[in-house]
Amino acid sequence: MTVSGQAAAQTAAQPAPLPPATPAETPLVAPQEAADTDSAVADAPDDAAVPDAAIPDPDGAAEQAVAPEPAVVPPATAVETAPAAIVPPTVERLPPGVTLETALAFDPTKLGATGWSRPDVERFYGVVGAAPLWTGAGRLAASVPAVTALIADAGAEGLDARAYPLAQLEALQAEGATGAFEVLFTDTVIKYAADRSGARLASVRLPVDMRELGQPVDSVALLVGVVSQADTAAALVALGPQDAEYAALKALLASYRTLAAAGGWAVVPAGGAKIEPGAVDSRIPAIRARLASTDGAAATAEKPNYYDPALLKAVEHFQARHGLKADGVIGKLTLEHMAKPVEYRIGQILVNMERKRQQLDDLGPDRIVVNIPEFTLRYYEDGVLAIETQVVVGREVRKTPLLQSKVTSVVLNPPWSVPAKLAGEDIVRKQINDPNYLTDHGFTLYGNDGEVVDPATVDWTQVPRSRSIPYRMRQRPGAGNSLGRMKINFVNDYAVYMHDTPDKHLFARDMRALSSGCVRVKDPLSLGARLVRDVPGWDRTRIDATLARTTSTIFVNVTHAIGVRLTYVTAWVDAEGNAQFRQDLYGIDDRIQKGLGRPVLIASES
Prior knowledge:
Shape: globular
Structural class: alpha+beta
Largest sheet: 8 strands, mixed, barrel
Strand content: 5-15%
Strand order of the largest sheet: 3-4-5-14-12-11-6-16
Number of helices: 19
Mean pLDDT: 86
């Protein structure tokens, strides 16, 4: 369930409390769960659900009781927000009576309208000492040329060298305005250190459910650490990501900028009929020229308009790099990806380099990582990839949120309490079209008083098509349940979780942003068995046997720490050295790129 849906649910009229169940209808005593938000239909909306414990359970009590999980209070609305300013626990200050002007012979008028930060500079000198550092006899004066050259080459790191006042620094140095140079150089290096460490992305305004916040960046503390090292320039280089994945993105950025400087690649028009291998089509020369730049196609062919086997190989390679079915059929999605100019791909690389600079929490050796645009879940056990499987994620209007959490429980045979909005807007329509829909699909209908209602006695044409529907619906557990046979809970503010699905055919699609926010897992049973491996008596054999003999709901608490991250990565280099790109499903890349406000083509500028 999305945040906006939760906020609306908080203001909607709530049903009267349901009466206690009779001994024959023992209510499920389960952990505090995320609301059941996914629909049996891929494009159906969702909303807040009735808690499972509020509706009698006709299918039997849970076989295993567990301690309740803490309730999660969701934020009221998905407002756009920038992170709060970082306030260090101890703010160092210059000694009483000492100012930058007196300590450094600093003339503020020399800096004009430069947007330097006096508080940051004062705090820095309050820590390292109120004396020149970069000028005169300062101990780091000899490092100024190397540090300046490093900042001038910021474009190689995907940063914008124009954001740093290098020309003004050069002018101040030539003028002999040592105090102004000292202050502005310190301010510049503080900003550069912060940018290398992910501060720019943290400042971009995004909806709260689309943010992936790393550790706060204390830019002054970063520079204090840098100047304590023997080699200042090397210490700056050591800031930010140092892993092979980042290095590969950095190299990819350089190569794509070289492509752009040479004119980019051939333009392929999006749209039009699909092109199958062996076809003759006037678009083939443009496609061949496009793939000659990145996927090994020959630039020309004896039969220019013929889709020959050599081009087929290049098309399949291109499709695999963009998360498409590598069948060689040039359809709508393949054409859309081919139509993107090199500048667009450079923008994606820049955004994903910023993502790599974020200092995210360590999830631990056992972790689940879902890359939303890739439609892929990876489970690492003891630090080693153990499972990789396809997933279905939220569509654009019901996004899967970015978050970090921990797995709490695995649920076999989960019931589904239908969100009120979905019930009113979707299932009522289905019931009108098919008077047996609720019965045939295993739903029990309840009035607001908690009593079971026969769907045949309701005039469905008079039922409100909104969350104000005066009924609650619950789908019994089983293979036909919209959540399938397994649900994996993890605490979060958005009432989402991972689960099975009866709609297995959706995993055959290239574009799998089809759910109502939850993550549908292609092979949930294999994953669930790994998650409960430390719970005595539970393994895949028992899970399979349990599901074969009963549809009763069973909760199994996960006993060891398993981190969860729902992330959003759209550009990377794979283990074979291939540049991988994915669609910007939710427009997050675009918003970040605009928020950063930096050009895609400038590699460096002094």
